[in-house]
Amino acid sequence: MSNTDQPNLADKSFLSVRDLKVHFPTDDGLVKSVNGLSFDLERGKTLGIVGESGSGKSVTSLSIMGLHRTGTKRGAPRISGEIWLDGEDLVAADPDRVRKLRGQKMAMIFQDPLTAMHPYYTVGAQIVEGYRAHHPGASKKEARKRAVEMLDRVGIPQPDRRVDNYPHEFSGGMRQRAMIAMALVNDPSLLIADEPTTALDVTVQAQILDLIRDLQKEFGSAVIIITHDLGVVAELADDILVMYGGKPVERGPAATIFESPEHPYTWGLLGSMPRLDRELQDRLIPVKGTPPSLINVPSGCAFHPRCPYAELTGGRSTSEVPALAEAAPRHHAACHLPIAERHRIFTEEIAPRL
Amino acid sequence: MLVYLFRRLVNVVFMLLVVAAVTFGIFFMVPKLTGTDPAMLYVGKIADKVAVEGIRHKMGLDKSIIEQFWLFLKGVFVGRDYNAGTDMTHCAAPCLGYSFKTEREVWPLLLNRVGVDFSLAAGACVLWLVFGTATGVVSALRRGTALDRLTMSVALAGVSLPIYFTGLVALAVFGHQLGWFPINYTDLTDDPLAWFEGLVLPWVTLAFLYAATYARLSRATLLDVLGEDYIRTARAKGLKEPVVIGKHAMRSTLTPILTIFGMDLGGLLGGAVLTEKTFNLRGLGYEAVTSIQSSDLPVIMGVTLFAAFFIVMANLVVDLLYAVVDPRVRLT
C-alpha cells in the first residue's frame, strides 16, 4: 500500500483504485454504495477489506470485476474514478475488454458456493467452461485434464472421479474448494475472495483460508479478501482497509491495525471480536447502533451517530467529512480526533478491554 | 431407474382403474336413480318389451354393477363377446363397448377422433412453445422497456380472451373475409396440404391462448434466474453474455416450462372442447359433448378414459424428463 492518497501514476501498483464512486439510482434516492475509495495492491500481497454489511466492500469488488453493470435488477449504477489493473483503466475500458480480463487476469470467489455454482452442470463442466472461455484453442480433453489438475491442486480427493460430480454431491467445504479451482484455472494475477468462508462450517473455514494462502504463495497473485470477520484477515492479509458507509476509514499494515488501531470504528470491530488468547471477558462489546443509510449518509463523519467520542471533536464530526490522513507511516485514518487524543483514549480505555 | 419406471407404470394403471371405476359408477348408477333404463337407450323409444329384454341380456345390463364393471375391464384387455343365444357379437380388445346411439364400437370411433386432437396439438404446441418462450425471454431481457410492456399487454389479452372469441374473429377475417384458409378439417392421410391449411387458424388461435401463459411464465422465471448467484459466477468467468443467457440462464428457465408443457399437452390431447366447437373439428372434445347430450354412456366412459390416460402419461413423461434436466432429482 502506498504512503500517500494520490500517488504518481508513474509508480502505479499492479492494482490501483483511485477515488472510486459507485452510485445506484433507486426509487428512494441515490444509493452511494462506494463513495470515494482509493487503494493500491501489489502482486503477491493480500489486502483485507473489512466492514459491516452495506459498507460498500462487496460493491467495490464487483466494480473491479466489472460485474456491477450486469448484476443488478435496477437501473445501471453510476461509476466514476479509476481502477487501474496492470496499466489498464477498467472503468474507462470497453465492457467486452473487461469481460476478457474477467476469469483470466482477475477472478473471484463468492460467499456461498452452493448457490454460486450452476446446479445443472457438473463441477468439471463448469471449470472446463471457464478454461475454454479464455483458451479457445484448447480441446475438451485438455481442458478436462486441466480441471482435474486444478481439483487435485485445491485438495479434492479422487479428482478424476469427482470432476464428473454435480455441485450438490459435494460438501460445503469441497464446493468452495471447487470454486477456488474454477477461479484459479486461468492463473489469474488478481483474486478477489468475497466472504469466502462465511457460509462454511467453522472447522472448514481455516482449511479454506490456508488453501488460499498456499495458492497465493504458489501463484504469486494479488489477493483481496473481503470480510466482516477480522479473524479472517488476521490470518491472511498484509494490509487492511476498514470501510464504513462506502468510505475507507482506516487502512494500514495488518499488524499495525491490530496493535494500534486509530479509528473508533476499528476499535469497535476489534472489541466485538471473540478472542481465545485473552482473559475471559464478561461480554463482547458490540458497536452500538445500526449501519448508516447509504441514501442519507450522516453529515460530516458518517460514523458520528455511533461514535462514543464524537463530542470530543468540537462539532467537526457533524459538519466536516474527515479526510484519510496519515497517522503513522503507512497508516491512515479518517478521524477528527487529534492523534494524541486518539492514542490516549486507545491506551487508557480501549486496549485494556481488548 | 427401472424400478422407478415400473412403479410409476403400475401407478398409471391403478389411476386409470380408479378413473374407470368412478366414471362407471356415476354413469351407470345415475340412470338407475333417475329411472331411465340404459337398455331403452339402445333400442330407442318404440321398442317392445321383448326387444328391450333381449338387449338388456345381450349387453349384460341385467347383471350386478360389480359384474358389469368386471366385464367392462375384461373387455378392455381381452375383448368381449356379447352373447344372446343365436345373436352373438365379438368385440375385440381393447373393447370399450358399443355406442348406444350409433351401435358402433367405441374404440375405433375414439381412435379416429383423437387423430384430430393430435393434429390440433402437434401444430399448436410447437407454435406456443417457440413463440411464447421467445417472447417471454425477449421481454425479460428488455424489461421495463416499451417492448416489454407491449408484449406483456398482448400476453394479458391472450390469457383473457376466450378461444371462441379469437377463433371466431380469425375465422371471420382470415377464413371468410379474406379467404386465405379453408375452414374445413381434412384428414392428414387424405390430403396433407389441405390438412395443414385447414389447421392453420385453429393452431394459431390455440397457440395464442397458450403462448400468453408461456410468455408470462418464462419472463418471470428468467428474471428470477438472472438474479441467481450462479449467473454472476458465469459472468465472473468471463463468458460472453449470449452464453450466460442462452446456456446458463435458459437451462434453468426451461425447467418449469417443461412441467406445464407436459400438463397442457396431456390435457389438450384429451379433447379441446371450445376449440373443436369453434372450428367445427370433430375430436374427443366434440365426442364428449355429444355423448353427454345423448347419454351415450359407453362413449362417455371411453372419452373419460382416453383423457385420463393422456394426462397421467403426460405427468409421467414430465417427471422422467425432469430427472434428465435436473441432476438433483433422483427417481426413487
Short description:
The complex is a heterodimer of chains A (354) and B (332). Chain A has 354 residues and is of the alpha/beta class.
Structure overview:
The complex is a heterodimer of chains A (354) and B (332). Chain A is of the alpha/beta class and 354 residues long. The two termini of chain A are 27 Å apart. Chain A has a domain at 260-353. In chain A, a hairpin with a 2-residue loop joins strand 11 and strand 12 (331-333). In chain A, the strands form 2 sheets. An 8-stranded mixed sheet of chain A has the order 6-7-8-3-9-10-12-11, with helices on both faces. In chain A, strands 2-1-4-5 form a 4-stranded antiparallel sheet, with helices on one face. Chain A is built from 12 helices and 12 strands. In chain A, 32% of the residues lie in helices and 21% in strands. Chain A is globular and about 70 Å long. Chain B has a two-stranded antiparallel sheet with strand order 1-2. In chain B, helix 5 crosses helix 8 and helix 8 crosses helix 10 (241-269). Chain B is globular and about 85 Å long. Chain B has 2 domains: 2-91, no CATH class; 106-325, MetI-like fold (Orthogonal Bundle), CATH 1.10.3720.10. By secondary structure, chain B is mainly α. The model of chain B has no long low-confidence stretch (mean pLDDT 85). Chain B has helices at 2-34, 38-43, 49-59, 65-78, 106-141, 146-160, 163-177, 192-226, 229-236, 241-269, 273-278, 284-293, 297-325; strands at 80-84, 87-91.
